[in-house]
From TrEMBL:
SUPFAM superfamilies per the UniProt record, alphabetical: Protease propeptides/inhibitors, Zn-dependent exopeptidases
Domain Peptidase M14, residue spans: 117-399
GO cellular component: cytoplasmic vesicle; extracellular space
Organism, as annotated: Triplophysa rosa (Cave loach)
Gene Ontology MF terms: metallocarboxypeptidase activity; zinc ion binding
Protein name: Carboxypeptidase B
Length: 416
């Protein structure tokens, strides 16, 4: 009887998970203004999910546009696109197949595995155990709870010297569906502690500075992608006066808030929230950085996908006061990254390199006075998009390590 009940509960849980059978991810390349307006029209009339860029109104001529089209809309959308003689490429023919194929590491491991995607419970346990196993290199604190009450675990990685050290702040998992990014933050912590003492650069970094690592920022959203909807992006907070849930945390910071490339509609995937830092996760992060801003020299926020290294500004076209230095550090970091597997990254200020978007955490940190503020957009460029297979975790993390170490080493060199 108990077994039957349990099976019943499992069945209910499985049914509640969104499936994507027959759904496609299409890539279109608008070549005229008419093409652009067709795409924008489409987004107004049909419920399509923009993967890149993240909203329709910033689509321009010559842009590469990746859209996830639900099955019921597929016939109509395909007809409209083909009639417009726009170039249409099928990136993912069946999204459900891709969702299942991303978990392609078949090795049996009980609990945490750096080469697999780990759910929040596993990451939380890992954060506790790796910090207690490395007491001289890692300390752990909770910087607040999420909307649904999960603890935002922050690991401070660096040799304990007894004095206050300059620091790099790095977060992953802003957008829930960007699973490669929490994987990178976990990788970074493990790589740091396991190469301290053998790798000269890492040893020097951990001796002279600390890394504040927040492995998952949007924990509620991340959990939701594991249990309900793999394609969820936003937080999970309720919005008053709307049945739509969640805010885009990377539109929720006080940097030109909601002026451009963001929506004031709670149903939008780029909803900026009811005010800056309306999301408790944004507030917790901003409070920590504000409190410690005198020691935080660099802010790194890790997203996916597109293979980009962006820096301020995104909320305006105007260049940052430190533009040429930020540009040259980005150039150095991306060439270090490329040296390992040849992965090409583009780099530049957000607004001119991709599109303007207000309320991002990198712009906010920069305007607060943290000069080396960068946004990573990790692999790939669209073959898998948010569904990067587990077999790419290792190469992605290895190459990204080189870029992060490059930036941190530059910061250290310019402090001493
Ligand atoms: C940074 O700020 C938080 C409070 O927001 C505090 O708990 C923490 O100890 C501060 N300093 C360091 C080095 O973590
Ligand atoms: Zn993102």
């Amino acid at each position: 009887m108990k077994v039957l009940l349990l099976l019943g509960l499992v069945a209910v849980a499985l049914c509640e998970q969104t499936r994507f059978v027959g759904e496609r991810v299409l890539r279109v390349k608008p070549e005229t203004y008419e093409h652009v307006s067709i795409i924008q029209e489409l987004s107004r009339n049909v419920k399509v999910d923009f993967w890149r860029p993240d909203r329709a109104d910033i689509v321009t001529v010559g842009m590469t546009v990746d859209i996830h089209v639900p099955a019921p809309q597929l016939a109509m959308v395909s007809t409209i696109l083909h009639q417009s003689d726009m170039e249409v490429e099928v990136l993912i023919g069946d999204l459900q197949v891709a969702v299942e194929a991303q978990m392609n590491n078949k090795r049996f491991t009980k609990g945490h595995d750096y080469m697999k995607y780990n759910n929040w419970e596993t990451i939380n346990d890992w954060a506790i155990s790796i910090s207690s196993a490395n007491p001289d290199l890692i300390s752990r604190q909770v910087i607040g709870n999420t909307y649904e009450g999960r603890p935002m675990q922050l690991l401070t990685v660096g040799k304990k010297t007894g004095s206050v050290k300059p620091a790099v702040f790095m977060d992953c998992g802003f957008h829930a569906r960007e699973w490669i990014t929490p994987a990178f933050c976990q990788w970074f912590v493990q790589e740091a502690v396991s190469t301290y003492g053998s790798d000269a650069e890492m040893t020097n970094l951990l001796d002279k500075m600390d890394f504040f690592v927040l492995p998952v920022f949007n924990i509620d959203g991340y959990e939701y992608t594991w249990t309900r909807d793999r394609m969820w992006r936003k937080t999970r907070s309720k919005n008053s006066g709307s049945s739509c849930v969640g805010t885009d945390p990377n539109r929720n910071f006080d940097a030109g808030w909601c002026t451009v490339g963001a929506s004031s509609n709670p149903c939008s995937d780029t909803y900026c929230g009811s005010r800056p830092e309306s999301e408790i996760e944004s507030k917790n992060l901003a409070n920590f950085i504000r409190t410690n801003k005198s020691i935080i020299k660099s802010y790194l926020t890790v997203h996916s996908y597109s293979q980009l290294l962006l820096f301020p500004y995104s909320y305006k076209y105007g260049l940052a006061a430190d533009h040429s230095e930020l540009l040259s550090v980005a150039q150095g970091a991306t060439s270090a990254l490329r040296s390992l597997y040849g992965t090409k990254y583009q780099y530049g200020p957000g607004a001119v390199t991709i599109y303007p978007a207000a309320g991002g955490s990198d712009d906010w940190a920069y305007d607060l006075g943290i000069k080396y503020a960068y946004t990573f957009e990790l692999r790939d460029t669209g073959r898998y998009g948010f569904l990067l297979p587990e077999s790419e975790i290792k190469p992605t993390c290895e190459e990204t390590m080189l870029a992060v170490k490059y930036i941190a080493s530059y910061v250290v060199k310019n402090l001493y």
